[in-house]
Here is the input.
Amino acid sequence: MWTPTEEEKYGVVICSFRGSVPQGLVLEIGETVQILEKCEGWYRGVSTKKPNVKGIFPANYIHLKKAIVSNRGQYETVVPLEDSIVTEVTATLQEWASLWKQLYVKHKVDLFYKLRHVMNELIDLRRQLLSGHLTQDQVREVKRHITVRLDWGNEHLGLDLVPRKDFEVVDSDQISVSDLYKMHLSSRQSVQQSTSQVDTMRPRHGETCRMPVPHHFFLSLKSFTYNTIGEDTDVFFSLYDMREGKQISERFLVRLNKNGGPRNPEKIERMCALFTDLSSKDMKRDLYIVAHVIRIGRMLLNDSKKGPPHLHYRRPYGCAVLSILDVLQSLTEVKEEKDFVLKVYTCNNESEWSQIHENIIRKSSAKYSAPSASHGLIISLQLLRGDMEQIRRENPMIFNRGLAITRKLGFPDVIMPGDIRNDLYLTLEKGDFERGGKSVQKNIEVTMYVLYADGEILKDCISLGSGEPNRSSYHSFVLYHSNSPRWGEIIKLPIPIDRFRGSHLRFEFRHCSTKDKGEKKLFGFAFSPLMRDDGTTLSDDIHELYVYKCDENSTFNNHALYLGLPCCKEDYNGCPNIPSSLIFQRSTKESFFISTQLSSTKLTQNVDLLALLKWKAFPDRIMDVLGRLRHVSGEEIVKFLQDILDTLFVILDDNTEKYGLLVFQSLVFIINLLRDIKYFHFRPVMDTYIQKHFAGALAYKELIRCLKWYMDCSAELIRQDHIQEAMRALEYLFKFIVQSRILYSRATCGMEEEQFRSSIQELFQSIRFVLSLDSRNSETLLFTQAALLNSFPTIFDELLQMFTVQEVAEFVRGTLGSMPSTVHIGQSMDVVKLQSIARTVDSRLFSFSESRRILLPVVLHHIHLHLRQQKELLICSGILGSIFSIVKTSSLEADVMEEVEMMVESLLDVLLQTLLTIMSKSHAQEAGEYVSCLLSLLRQMCDTHFQHLLDNFQSKDELKEFLLKIFCVFRNLMKMSVFPRDWMVMRLLTSNIIVTTVQYLSSALHKNFTETDFDFKVWNSYFSLAVLFINQPSLQLEIITSVKRKKILDKYGDMRVMMAYELFSMWQNLGEHKIHFIPGMIGPFLGVTLVPQPEVRNIMIPIFHDMMDWEQRKNGNFKQVEAELIDKLDSMVSEGKGDESYRELFSLLLLEKVEQETWRETGISFVTSVTRLMERLLDYRDCMKGEETENKKIGCTVNLMNFYKSEINKEEMYIRYIHKLCDMHLQAENYTEAAFTLLLYCELLQWEDRPLREFLHYPSQTEWQRKEGLCRKIIHYFNKGKSWEFGIPLCRELACQYESLYDYQSLSWIRKMEASYYDNIMEQQRLEPEFFRVGFYGRKFPFFLRNKEYVCRGHDYERLEAFQQRMLSEFPQAVAMQHPNHPDDAILQCDAQYLQIYAVTPIPDYVDVLQMDRVPDRVKSFYRVNNVRKFRYDRPFHKGPKDKENEFKSLWIERTTLTLTHSLPGISRWFEVERRELVEVSPLENAIQVVENKNQELRSLISQYQHKQVHGNINLLSMCLNGVIDAAVNGGIARYQEAFFDKDYINKHPGDAEKITQLKELMQEQVHVLGVGLAVHEKFVHPEMRPLHKKLIDQFQMMRASLYHEFPGLDKLSPACSGTSTPRGNVLASHSPMSPESIKMTHRHSPMNLMGTGRHSSSSLSSHASSEAGNMVMLGDGSMGDAPEDLYHHMQLAYPNPRYQGSVTNVSVLSSSQASPSSSSLSSTHSAPSQMITSAPSSARDKYRHAREMMLLLPTYRDRPSSAMYPAAILENGQPPNFQRALFQQVVGACKPCSDPNLSVAEKGHYSLHFDAFHHPLGDTPPALPARTLRKSPLHPIPASPTSPQSGLDGSNSTLSGSASSGVSSLSESNFGHSSEVPPRTDTMDSMPSQAWNADEDLEPPYLPVHYSLSESAVLDSIKAQPCRSHSAPGCVIPQDPMDPPALPPKPYHPRLPALEHDEGVLLREETERPRGLHRKASLPPGSAKEEQARMAWEHGRGEQ
Here is the structure.
């Protein structure tokens, strides 16, 4: 049964609980819980961390703590019953814990470790507090340590400063704002100093300065190590001042036995002393600790004969010293004892023993020596500070060790009352004695006794040193054989005061014999009385005493016998007639010297003081004695203070008239003496005397009379020193007056009361008189007034004993009122006056409300005057702070309405004015003081006060001025940050007071300034204040911790909401005047709505509707609201304000409002527009502030910029974003895009002289100048981006302007620039970019990308996979889609990110340029890939049933055309797709395009050789011809014949007749072109290559024969046979269709399959489906290929020799968007027309293209059978023969890219299966194709590379048709006709990529450049060496021209592709390659006769056609 708990309410979790039971509450160790119910060992309750979650937990997991429960029941609150500071430590440590871990994460390691240390200390200190075992003082000390550490940690972690008082957090509700401000200041100082904070309140005005702190040395003797003495020793420690040459302390004595231990066993570990009362001045003296060691034993240590063993003498042994200055630093740093070793030295000459310590200090080493290295004293020292009480409190352990208090000689700096001393310090100085007839000098010992008057020896009155008991006699140490001994030994004589008078000292002198008897023979004595006859004690001086002769038999029983004798010279002078018959004779030649020093609080050596105390003995000297009192030393006076005061008042009573003034002066002198810091502690003695011992009942009359007389004299006297002294003594004089009157009143039952009152009133009149005097001309009077004002507040407490509070207050008011106003007195007097007022306010009198009502007006009057004149502001603020503090304290108990009313009337206005002045000067300290005063006043004001205040204004102008002032102060308060950021308590309280005040004032504003008296200035000021208030950083609760937020909300609520309601209410009150604040307040209000507080937003957003409505009413539209809102929204969102929820709320609230309006359409349009702008701005901000990539930022900026231009037409914002975008492009080095971006701004400008203002970074200038500057900059960027074609029109435009202005200098410059651009176009290498289509699907994408598709212009060298990787890294959350199909709605609307990426082919706009024959390919290359707006993507598919005999019949192409919003390149590297078009290309159309493209390609290449554009090397033509002819012979074109010339096909497709005819014509043309090509080949072919040419002729005959039955006239067409040619028009093409059977014969792992990656095969393989047929790898029969990594590995195994990597014969692989249903889909792709093919000059980039595709498509080594193509040519190591390898390297390396960078070879028309390489079919079943597997893709299934390598010749770009016979590189197209100068070569073989292998720079091993020699002999040798089948080598091998320079310098580690010459059985010989020169433009040499003949034949053929 669960029962509510009674006692168990609060506990701490001591073991973590997982909450594994039903309803279990998960608890972590250390959490606190509130317990609600209990049941059988279980509790039910909540954790204080999560108060809303209730649960059960085991009772034994909880440690219960006592707590206070309030509001018992369902909503009870529990507060732990523990010290508040413990609670604070707990909460703070929990808050620090999370921040502490963050320090480590942020690498702030130093602070991390410091904080850990502090946290551990706090935990330990908290444990000590909780233990409950500490004394009160220890608790206070622990709390001090805790607060210092808490404040330090909060400061370093950037947390809030905690205001404290007495180490506890203050409640801001209980104290005034002024006090809170001072506490903050104090806490801040304590943090900065990290020192103790004694009190958080600053000392009040006039508080006395601190007392000097005495220092004490604790000394403990640990051990004395010696091994040579062997006798008992006495060690004397003392402090010695080297500079003064004297000892300054008593001696501390330690008695040790011969073993070095204490003689008294109880002293073990207790040999310690405390040297006390050292002042700060003493600590700066040259002090030493001196230790004298005296041994007690034989006369001579090492001579046993000297003296009998039973007699012991005190003999000097050694001395040790330690400099305190040397060790002071280390003692100050450590708080505990520190050990030191003192080395003991012995004296070389005993007669100098008294100076041994000085000699050691001076290092006079000749005078002392060290007996042994081991001799030393080990002592420990500790420095202590504070008075003795404090020392006892803080170090109780020290005093428990039998501590010997060792005092200073003389009095300390501060003499404490009750410190009774009566010590006479006697120093045995020296003696001079006669030898007495002996041969050697004496060994003299002095014995001293203290004897009383009756001759009795006083017991225990001699102390050799502290630490040992007193004794009755003293024996000096003995100096061996010295008649003039120097002792210098100090002895303390603590003689009781009552025995002092009459006592005397007797010194007896004995010679210590060292003979056997060892007698001590008395031979003389001396004596000295302690007091003189006049009652004074022995003076502090050296005294020479007479020595009297005597012997052992002399008796001293009758001391009177010698006391009558003179003891010294002064005494002898006093009694000259001494009888000579006495038994004691003086020895005139002997003398004895002592010195004395008295430290006594009871005895005096001053004669004048004695005379005063015994004045009755000499009444006639009394005037003189009183006069001389001021010359007596202060020490003597304070010692006898009570006696002196008694005497003075007795004298006063004796004769008032005669002695009155002198007694008054003496009293004033003594009172002022006690003001001295040295005697300050005697003030309590004086107070005690007045209260308890003073008995002068009549004294008050005389004291009042004298005081009044002094006051009245002040106007006339020139010297006023005595008057000023009297003024300073006013406090104690009044104490005496009041106490005297009380005594008199008691004695007489209140008689003469009226006389007393009237005399006091007269006295006050005199005081007022003094203060009212004009002191400007008299400095003396000024000082008198200052002294009076300083002392005046001290008399209030005394007057309150005799008068009522009101009466005293009236006295004071009259006095303060009598002071002249500020204007009439000097500044110094001003300060004194204000200090007096301050002390009045701080006095007890002011704490009474009755007196405050009387005093406040006069106090406020003076402060008001000072504030008006801005004088003494700091003192005034202190006074005001004290007043507010008192009023606040009083307000908790009583009503202070009247006082607050007075302060409001007097101060409010002047405080505001003062604050405005201070704030304008930025005086932070003063501003803080006055702000706290103003806030204190406003906080005390209630409704009534505000009502009175507002009613009291005489006019609306006054009210307006007041409101403007207070609003301005409040605004400054928030703007200037008067209070530091971490003063959270202060800032919140300030905000609370401001919002409360504004609520009071807003009604007055509404009432007085709304209707006819509307005042814009006041309203504007109000709105500005409200906006600033809501935006204050300290009120943004969202960014602070939940615990702190809850505290603030509980105490103040959300003040932003309060102010927002107030603001909205006031806005509604404006009515028709709202229009005045449109558009001015739109920005500020927008800022308020952007505050992340839902309620504030709900309140404020509707105001925008109101503004729109009012502007609509006035102007018929709301253009101003629209413009301002958009402007401000941009800047505010970019500052980080606003969020998605704001955008939704903004739209929702405003649309709801606008729906009901007549102007709803424009309103909805505007709101929608703004909402969309916000979407873009938020995206833009997120991109900019995050670690986003450049692409994202640029895309976002473009999106926003376009929005500003197209949707809301904000030109200025548009231009700003143009420049932001330009800067981003420049940063990303997108120079072309940067130029296009700036061009947008340039196009907005005209060539006019209209002046333009300064804008962004542009100066003030004309429009013409700005446009010119922009044009120049744009041209510069186009140049850097190598887009010279775009820069040329701008050059022309500038030239036109310069020409019109006759600015020929600039014209010359721009024309040269234009010319240089033409040169650059023709000469410089440019890379062609790839293009990629990217779809962004899903709602998680930024708004500007969401569910849109873009085409992106890739970076240099960037292929599809690199681009994919980049996009996925930019969108790490995105998932790559595995198909190119358009996504469905589920994907579009899901909360995720999907990316769909594939490569696309540009469709250029400038078709005319590309079709012109004479245009250099470098020029065409630019137009193929620039200014492109349309892009194409092809996908092959089978429509209907697939023909297994011939797949070409059913193979269609799905062609997608994408149209962009803008052309690329443009202002961005990517643009959105505007339109998609989908068309299907029939198989026949596909075949036509393929053949036509191949004809164009052949024609172009042949034309280049005819016009000698290709220098010398015929290899490229050889390879191309071989590829086409070989493929045709082996059945390539036959497949087209079978498919489309079949009767069945013609019958089924009657509409295709024209197209079939066209295909036939194209095939015929191909034969014609091949004939011309062979003729050209024959003309240029190298002798070594004749076998190849012969093979080509033979195969050509076969080709014609195979087509003869179809085209009977073919045998007449070949110029190789007949010498004539009639090609068709300008199209030369050749194509050889490939049969599906042929495909089937190709094994998927055969070497020919490898050619599939050689993307551009120029051989006419079976008809190509498309040169850009999609980006997905098509899988034959659904089988999956190897992963890229495996493929790469197998390639390495198959072709380990890097030189030949890539030299593999042709292979066909179909890459398609879907897995093909059967392998037959391999056989037909479409070849794009040549003008669509990307063609940039081949460059270094090309070396790296297509490796990825090749790697994906190569077979694995383990599955690869012996080559079916070259069975005889495989060498022992499994490599293909050199020729084949080299040929393939040429084929692959030099191949021209097809236009779709995305496709694998098959898709692009490279199904180049080398059918004639087979002797017989391998089988009917088509093998599976190697393909890139979708599952194993390292990124995602999006297929391989988008990049297309460039052509090997002239950068030309002919489309490749798929060859069925040989896989040879595509050929460049060139000009037909003649050319005197051939375009320079830009693409040499070494710049070609070896597509299969070297696309990635990091492939291993690195390729070394290789040169292949083409020398005839070498080739002939190789021909003989290795036979080869004629059909095994593909035709059209591209030879390398060794003289041709590279277009770009080759990249490191990239191989030159070998140059080849071949015939049947040719193997190539390789040689080391030579470096090649850089590119040069060159003309061709004139042609030979044969060349001319061939050219004419070609031209003739063209003409006939």
